[in-house]
Design brief:
The protein is mainly alpha-helical and about 400 residues long. Helices cover about 75% and strands about 5% of the residues. The chain has 12 helices and 3 strands.
Length: about 400
C-alpha cells in the first residue's frame, strides 16, 4: 500500500464527502449548474463502475447504481441564502462538481475495488433504503458482494485507512500549528536576545544564557512531539495491516465457521432426540416387563413336567439379544452425536479465537502459528483418526474365544 495510493483514496473520499456547498452570492449561476448536472454526473460515474466490473459482481454494482441514482432523481438539491452575503446548496447525497471529476473517473478505472469501497461508505444510507420496500434478490446480491473475498478485505482496509488518515491529518495540522508557533516564539526570542545584548552589552551575558536554555528546551519539545507523531503513524499502519489480514482470513474461513456452527446445532439436536428415545424405550420395556411379563410367561406353552421347551427359551433369548443390540445401537448413536457436537463447537470457538488474534496487531501471529491453528481446526473428525479403535462386537469376542479371530 503506497503513500500515493492512500492519497488517491483520500482525494476520492473527500470528493464524495460534500453534501453542502457554501458559495458567495455572485456564483448563483455555478450553483444552478451544479444542481442541474447531478443526474448526469452520477450517470457518468456509475458508467465508469459498470465498465470496470464485468464479472458476477457487476449485478451488485447495478443494484447500488439503481438505488443511488434513484435517490438522486427523486431528491433534487436545494439552494438557499445563508446569513450574510452567500448561498448554500444542499442535498441528501454527495454533490459531484466538475472540478477534478475526470481525475475521479480515472481513479475508478484504475482501482475499481477501492473506489467501490469508498463509494459504499459515503452512500450507505442510500443503498440501505431504510424504511422502504426492497427486493429480496437485490439484497442477496449485496450480501454476496460484502462476503466476496475480493471486496471484504478492501472495504476493511479502506475504512481503517481513511479513519486513521482523518485522525492523522488532524494531528499533523496540530503539529504544524505548534511548529509555526514555536518558530515564531524562537524568532521573537532571538530578537529580544539581540536587543538585550546590544543594549546592555556584557552585563546581559547571564540573561542571554538563560534565554538560550529556553530556546534549547523548546527545540527538544518539538523533537519529542515529532517522535510521538511518527510513533502514532507507525501504530496506525500496523492496525491497518492487522484489519486487512483479519478481513481476508474471515472471508476464507466464513464457510467453515458456518459449517461447524450448523453441525454443532444439528448434532446437539440428534443427541437429545436419541437420549430421550433411549430412556423412553427403556422405560416402556421395564414397565411392560413389570406389568405384563408374568402374564406373558404364564401363557407360554410348557412341557408335561411344567418346564419351558428349549425352542421357546431359545426364541426368548434371541428376542432379548435383539433388543439389547437395538439399545446398544441407539446408545452409540447418542454418544457419537454428543462427541461430534462438542467437537464442532470447539472448532467454531477456535475459528473465532484465531480471527481475534489475527486482528490484534500486538499478538505477533507468525506463519508457523497459523499453520498450527489451522491444522487443529481442520483435523480429522472424532472416530476417523488412524489411532481410533472401535469397541469389539459380540461376534468379535466369540471369534476370539474360539481361536478363529
Amino acid at each position: 500500500m503506497a503513500i500515493n495510493d492512500i492519497g488517491k483514496w483520500l482525494a476520492f473520499d473527500r470528493y464524495l464527502s460534500k453534501r453542502i456547498l457554501d458559495l458567495p452570492l455572485e456564483q448563483q449561476d455555478y450553483a444552478r449548474a451544479v444542481i442541474g448536472e447531478q443526474q448526469l454526473r452520477w450517470q457518468e460515474l456509475f458508467g465508469a463502475f459498470s465498465g470496470a466490473f464485468r464479472d458476477r459482481s457487476s449485478a451488485a454494482v447495478a443494484v447500488i447504481s439503481s438505488r443511488v441514482r434513484g435517490r438522486v432523481g427523486e431528491n433534487s438539491p436545494s439552494m438557499g441564502k445563508k446569513p450574510g452575503a452567500g448561498i448554500s446548496v444542499q442535498a441528501p447525497y454527495p454533490l459531484l462538481e466538475q472540478a477534478s471529476f475526470l481525475e475521479q473517473l480515472a481513479f475508478v478505472k484504475e482501482s475499481p475495488w477501492q473506489a467501490l469501497a469508498i463509494l459504499v461508505r459515503r452512500t450507505r444510507h442510500l443503498i440501505a433504503m431504510e424504511g422502504e420496500l426492497r427486493a429480496e434478490d437485490e439484497d442477496q446480491q449485496l450480501r454476496e458482494l460484502f462476503s466476496d473475498v475480493r471486496f471484504a478485505p478492501v472495504l476493511a482496509e479502506v475504512s481503517v485507512a481513511l479513519e486513521n488518515l482523518t485522525w492523522l491529518s488532524e494531528m499533523n495540522s496540530s503539529l504544524q500549528d505548534f511548529q509555526q508557533s514555536s518558530v515564531q516564539m524562537l524568532t521573537s526570542a532571538k530578537l529580544v536576545w539581540d536587543s538585550e545584548v546590544a543594549a546592555i552589552g556584557k552585563t546581559s551575558v547571564a540573561a542571554a544564557e538563560k534565554l538560550a536554555v529556553s530556546v534549547s528546551e523548546h527545540t527538544e519539545e518539538i523533537a519529542t512531539n515529532k517522535k510521538a507523531f511518527d510513533d502514532m503513524v507507525a501504530g496506525a499502519t500496523e492496525q491497518i495491516k492487522a484489519a486487512r489480514k483479519q478481513a481476508t482470513e474471515n472471508g476464507i474461513l466464513q464457510g467453515a465457521n458456518t459449517l461447524w456452527s450448523n453441525k454443532a446445532f444439528w448434532h446437539g439436536f440428534r443427541f437429545w432426540f436419541g437420549l430421550f428415545a433411549l430412556f423412553g424405550l427403556l422405560g416402556v420395556g421395564l414397565y411392560w416387563a413389570a406389568d405384563a411379563g408374568p402374564n406373558f410367561l404364564s401363557k407360554l406353552p410348557k412341557k408335561a413336567d411344567g418346564e419351558l421347551p428349549y425352542a421357546t427359551v431359545a426364541l426368548m433369548i434371541a428376542c432379548l439379544v435383539a433388543a439389547g443390540w437395538a439399545l446398544r445401537f441407539l446408545g452409540r448413536f447418542v454418544t457419537e452425536n454428543m462427541t461430534l457436537q462438542a467437537d464442532a463447537a470447539q472448532r467454531e470457538v477456535m475459528i473465532q479465537t484465531y480471527l481475534a488474534l489475527v486482528g490484534d496487531e500486538k499478538a505477533l501471529m507468525e506463519q508457523t502459528d497459523r499453520t498450527l491453528i489451522l491444522n487443529a481446526i481442520f483435523r480429522p473428525l472424532p472416530g476417523h483418526q488412524s489411532e481410533d479403535v472401535a469397541p469389539p462386537t459380540l461376534l468379535d469376542i466369540v471369534k476370539s474365544a474360539s481361536g478363529k479371530g
